[in-house]
Description:
The chain has helices at 8-55, 138-141, and strands at 62-63, 66-71, 75-76, 85-90, 96-109, 112-119, 123-127, 132-137, 150-160, 163-173, 176-182, 187-188, 193-203, 208-221, 224-239, 244-253, 259-269, 273-282, 293-299, 302-304, 311-317, 323-336, 338-345, 349-353, 358-363, 376-386, 390-400. It is built from 2 helices and 27 strands. By secondary structure, it is mainly beta. Residues 1-5 and 51-57 have low confidence and may be disordered. The protein has 4 domains: 1-58; 62-173, Immunoglobulin-like, CATH 2.60.40; 177-282, Immunoglobulins (Immunoglobulin-like, Sandwich); 293-400, Immunoglobulins (Immunoglobulin-like, Sandwich).
Amino acid sequence: xxxxxxxxxxxxxxxxxxxxxxxxxxxxxxxxxxxxxxxxxxxxxxxxxxxxxxxxxxxxxxxxxxxxxxxxxxxxxxxxxxxxxxxxxxxxxxxxxxxxxxxxxxxxxxxxxxxxxxxxxxxxxxxxxxxxxxxxxxxxxxxxxxxxxxxxxxxxxxxxxxxxxxxxxxxxxxxxxxxxxxxxxxxxxxxxxxxxxxxxxxxxxxxxxxxxxxxxxxxxxxxxxxxxxxxxxxxxxxxxxxxxxxxxxxxxxxxxxxxxxxxxxxxxxxxxxxxxxxxxxxxxxxxxxxxxxxxxxxxxxxxxxxxxxxxxxxxxxxxxxxxxxxxxxxxxxxxxxxxxxxxxxxxxxxxxxxxxxxxxxxxxxxxxxxxxxxxxxxxxxxxxxxxxxxxxxxxxxxxxx
Length: 401
């Protein structure tokens, strides 16, 4: 019998081959899935084991329910006093009894011991759940400042509940040269004269000599330089620790187009290049009134009699758009029957305030020693004036006996 396509036997043979191929492909997929599953289990097992092995040693200073911790900043300037505290934290949700013995605190720079404190006596204290105990405060014992630049290792060794625990932390004292500028305004008008003084600050614990060869001045808009100047100096300077020395007075015309620019200063010395970048805003218009602005006074409202009082004043931009403001007058008075403190500034004060941001216009310093001796209610009054407007803010301060 003649068939126009294939015989039934041929069709059956073909179906069997297809079924065999399907089974083989299914088995290959199953084997691949099983292999992936085994690999995933291996990865999970490895991660669990690695995490436990690694993080079990990660928490330094842990003894039972307690953890010994050194609290301090990572870096200091040479004239800063090292502020270091040692605390013990109770990590449990119940009270725990703490026993400390043979406490040793030391600070070293390389192999030189800068400071050491030893307290051998036994101290016992009950610590609240998730509470902490201050064990040592360096500022109460010694004021360490004017340190040479470099890395300092702080080490604490103590017997905690019968077990010796040792922890350490490295802090850096920064020593560098830094460019500072004075009299650079917040914004300028096109073609206006831009004038500012360039200073070099010796951030160090000792007097240092430096030779300044030149100052490079570049004004950028984006990545494009719109103005460049190389100013030869060729002079030696000896600058005392944490002091500044004037290097040069810069003078140039603001760009003709409004926009945001960057001033780059490159101070070339015999051995290095010291750089500083500053924003330069150029605008044709500024806001003459004070709409969309508000005053903020930051300071305590309740203080004890005889306590030193510090505060700051900020100008807040309540709108999305950047504002260019020219203040003509700033007056601040703190009074209680009669003035206790006053401040006035009547020269032009330009401010650039970004949208929904604030700028500080006054802050008490270490030279402004304000003490509220007499109990009662004091009134702090702040007034600022622009060309066409005026803002005032008052805050009451209650002084208790």
